[in-house]
Amino acid sequence: MRIPAHSVCTAIRDDIVSGVFERGSRLTEDQLARRYGVSRVPIREALRTLESEGFVVTRRHAGAHVAEPTEQEAADLLDMRALLEPLGAARAAQRRTEAHLKVLRGLVRLGQERARRGQGEDLRSLGGWFHETLAQASGSPALTALLTQLRHKIAWMYAVEQPSQPVEAWAEHGAIVDAVARGDAERARALTALHAERSLSLHRLKRPERGRVRVSQHVVNTASARN
């Protein structure tokens, strides 16, 4: 059975973001095909997609390599998120469905509960799901795709600390959802902009560790492990 290129693309992107493939490291089709247990065809397609997203660069006579963004490019990612997330929240206030609201409210309840218990790892996942759902509620596939790509790149470039007052952070999430539920686009925009600004201090730029090999040789069944 042919494994879809998008599944392979997700697997390679995850390994780039997590640092399995370090910035600047070479990516050969044979190496990747062995790692993920696929033919070279979906690998080739996945590399083209990842190059269009900025995770991979193709060098003349040298092949594909993991990109090496500059510090300025990394800073630009946070600036772009600060512009696009409030726009997404404003659009969500105008276009959200009851299904979106149900999911958002459920995530806020879980987040507030986990915050009171100090379950930091759960909060990280819940926060990602919250912002992904908020983006989807915008009703704009293009905007949702941009925000998803930004989240991947920010996770690649930055280590993000948990807020010192997680209960307050989740109260901010709750206030955003309240504004979205009321259809108050300007308030949703303003609250999301403030939330993004407050999170800036939690981001620490990752420094590449040179000379460290982390690429294992095991085969990954992307058909079952990746959707």
From TrEMBL:
Domain of life: Bacteria
Keyword terms: DNA-binding, Transcription, Transcription regulation
The keyword DNA-binding appears for this protein: yes
UniProt domain HTH gntR-type: residue ranges: 2-69
Protein's UniProt name: GntR family transcriptional regulator
Species for this entry: Streptomyces exfoliatus
